[in-house]
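Hi R.,

As promised on Friday, here is the backbone we talked about, encoded as structure tokens. Could you run it through your design pipeline when you get a chance and send me back a sequence?
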């Protein structure tokens, strides 16, 4: 028998869930899924928005679609630049061991 780390009740050694408090006794690392880092997600979103904007700009002949495409392209470029800044900042903090 062992004690539950959450409610301190006696439970079986092989237990994976406490029968009293219903807490999971399995390590969280086993349940963890892998996701893209937020900076990379931001970069990819910005790149997609910029590409859509450039596409709209290239197919229109100077109308509202051209203005919309130019705005999207500029916004996407800004997001990509900001994501690159965050990446450089992260690497700089890793190199200099600052938090």
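Update: got your reply. Pasting your designed sequence below so it's all in one thread:
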């Amino acid at each position: 028998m062992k004690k539950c780390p959450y409610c301190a009740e006696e439970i079986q050694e092989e237990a994976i869930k406490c029968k009293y408090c219903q807490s999971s006794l399995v390590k969280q690392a086993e349940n963890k899924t892998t996701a893209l880092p937020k900076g990379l997600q931001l970069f990819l979103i910005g790149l997609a928005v910029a590409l859509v904007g450039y596409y709209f700009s290239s197919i229109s002949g100077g109308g509202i679609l051209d203005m919309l495409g130019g705005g999207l392209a500029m916004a996407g470029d800004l997001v990509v630049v900001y994501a690159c800044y965050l990446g450089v900042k992260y690497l700089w903090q890793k190199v200099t061991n600052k938090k």
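One thing I noticed while checking it: Strands lie at 2-3, 10-11.

Thanks again,
M.
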